[in-house]
Design brief:
five-stranded mixed beta sheet, Nucleotidyltransferase, domain 5, 37% helix, alpha/beta
């Protein structure tokens, strides 16, 4: 018959030996009801004590910390002549410090509560909660069905300082569902190793990326049927860099007074036209009239933005 250990903690095949209360901490010593070979289920076994384990369980009532103490054994089976460590069904792996029920509760609450709040409430380390969530996500997304993936985006993110490509991650993401398909260390072609095995079953038709030749060459080679599109952010960023280069060149031909005037107005040229305050618009019109080369380059930038503003989304057209 299941006991309170099962109904409150999800523990089967163990019974309580002793329960001791120490200042908001309850220690329950467990004893296994029966031992058997975890492989052939024979009860003809010899036990060897390995060590004692302490596993945190779910809080009960006002008792925030509930600890289960039990002895872990090595089992020798006289039927199959195999030695193995006994299975503990209420923990995820032999070195787990929290019970399955406790981890499940943390994951359910994590959808609504921050990691730090959970850690403080249950008297756990921040990293303990983080590792539980990380392990769950790794298991959940270990395999991703990419057979219906038609459009992906590729980009790198900076995660820290390092030499060469270190400190970067390359992310391949499904543009329709938002699911992350591949994460590679570094940037460039080497970071895409492993992406092929995940995308080989896909019906890839569209790849959005920055203007790096390495990415476009790799996808053109492995997915020649896919259309490569340079994403809006990187194209406009490149145009802004060119605009700033023109501004600097124009400044080099001016006297010191004109240079100071133009230097302090750099932000006006880099802002989108609709985001510029009305008082700054008048300044911009005067500058464009006084510095024709700079004004023309600014108009080219805005014309390029207009193309994107009137675009038809490609993802929605993919069949």
């Amino acid at each position: 018959m299941p006991t309170y250990l099962y109904y409150t903690q999800g523990i089967l095949d163990f019974q309580e030996e002793t329960a001791t209360y120490f200042e908001e901490r309850l220690e329950i010593r467990l004893k296994r009801k029966k031992h058997q070979c975890p492989k052939c289920m024979s009860k003809d076994v010899t036990l060897t004590v390995l060590y004692e384990r302490d596993v945190r369980g779910l809080p009960m009532g006002r008792i925030r910390e509930v600890h289960f103490i039990y002895t872990l054994h090595q089992v020798y089976c006289h039927r199959c002549h195999e030695r193995s460590t006994e299975d503990i069904p209420f923990i995820l792996h032999p070195k787990a410090r929290l019970s399955n029920e406790f981890e499940r509760t943390i994951l359910e609450l994590r959808e609504q509560i921050s990691i730090r709040a959970l850690a403080n409430y249950f008297h756990l380390r921040w990293h303990t909660v983080k590792e539980i969530e990380k392990r769950y996500l790794q298991h959940k997304f270990a395999t991703i069905d990419t057979s219906k993936v038609k459009a992906v985006g590729v980009d790198e993110i900076h995660i820290g300082h390092g030499q060469a490509n270190r400190g970067f991650l390359t992310i391949v993401r499904d543009l329709e569902s938002g699911a992350v398909i591949h994460v590679g260390e570094g940037k460039g072609v080497s970071a895409l190793e492993g992406a092929m095995s995940k995308l080989n079953a896909s019906k890839l038709q569209l790849v959005a990326m920055d203007m790096a030749n390495a990415y476009s060459t790799w996808f053109a080679k492995h997915f020649p049927q896919a259309q490569i599109v340079f994403d809006h952010f990187h194209v406009i960023k490149l145009m802004n860099d060119k605009l700033d280069h023109v501004r600097r060149r124009v400044m080099g031909r001016l006297d010191s007074i004109q240079q100071k005037q133009l230097k302090g107005l750099r932000f006006i040229f880099l802002k989108n036209n609709e985001d510029i305050p009305e008082n700054a618009r008048n300044i911009l019109r005067n500058l464009r009239g006084n510095f024709q080369e700079l004004g023309d380059t600014y108009m080219f930038k805005e014309a390029l933005r207009t193309i994107y503003l009137h675009r038809t989304p490609l993802v929605g057209q993919i069949s």
